[in-house]
Amino acid sequence: MMWREFVNLNSYWQSVNYCEKLGIILGTTAEIRNNAVLLHKGKRMKVLEFQHVKPGKGGAFVRTKLKDIQTGKIIDETFNAGARIEIIRVEVKPMQYLYNDGDFFIFMDNKTYDQITVSESIINRRKDFLVAGMNVDLLFDSQEILDVRIPAHVVLQVTDTEPGFKGNTATGATKPATLETGFIIQVPLFVSSDDKIKIDTRTGQYIERAK
Fold it and tell me: What is the CATH number of the domain that holds 20?
């Protein structure tokens, strides 16, 4: 083996050992998935969207939309197909949401009953759908909380809206309604205060009146 090859191989294994200590997996663009967390340019980035592209001319590439977990900023990033990437190993812990204290949200470990504080910058718009007692998943790496995963659908109570009228089902007609979390959503005209409605937390849209 040439000396240069030995040095390169030694550097590679040093990099592997360093990544393992940080909970990072060395992979390629073939392993990119939605919701995966990458270490990209020194920042923890969550994959929101990805698309493998094979143009008629030139090499294949992967087009992605990434979210900076710390700042919430979303960027478009393109990788050459087969390029090496660093995937952060994520641990998922079931938690129960308790309450919020200003800009912080308090969760409890369902097994140990330990309480964990999560900043609003991580919760982001999901705070609009959190109610006390809701079970969620907190995602951790070896150093910090990366994300909070809430159910795709939740049932929340309407606390304020214009009176609804039975049989008022005009196609497409909606009105604003305030939910128990303070979030304002567009609902059909027949929905009334105190009704419970099902909401898609991914889009923030009304699905149906809960039974």
Answer: 2.30.30.30
Whether 169 contacts 159, CB under 8 Å? no
Local structure of 60: helix, strand or coil: coil
- CATH code at 198? 2.40.50.140
Q: Are residues 117 and 54 in the same domain?
A: no
Structure-block tokens of residue 49: 């969207």
The domain in which residue 163 lies consists of 153-209
Q: How many Cα atoms are found within 13 Å in the side-chain-facing hemisphere of 116?
A: 25
Residues 125 and 195 in one domain: no
Given pLDDT bands bounded at 50, 70 and 90, which one contains residue 169?
A: low
> Which residues on adjacent β-strands are paired with residue 210?
none
Indicate if 66 and 123 belong to the same structural domain. no
Nearest to 198 by CA among 134, 167, 155: 155
pLDDT, tens digit, 9 for 90 and up, residues 60-103: 999 999 988 777 789 999 999 999 999 888 888 999 999 999 88
Identify the bridge partners of residue 139 per DSSP, sorted by sequence position: 92, 147
Does the predicted TM-score (pTM) go above 0.85? no
What pLDDT digit, counting tens, does each position of 122-142 carry?
888 889 999 999 999 998 876
Distance from first CA to last CA of the chain, Å, rounded?
71
